[in-house]
Amino acid sequence: MSSAGAACGPAPGPNHGASNPRKFSEKIALHTQRQAEETAAFQEVMMDLSSTRLTKITRRS
Question: Which of 4, 3, 5, 27 lies closest to 15 in space, CA to CA?
């Protein structure tokens, strides 16, 4: 048996896990902001794709 998974997870000490609510809420805020940015980028790509498809369909008609 290997103990390769033993190094995963938070480091031992007083600042591990959710022991500091301020840091935990900051992590949630960063995650929410990153998710919103990724969603906006995805929507922009999908809008570009949709407009490209509409342009091709319009030109064929």
Answer: 27
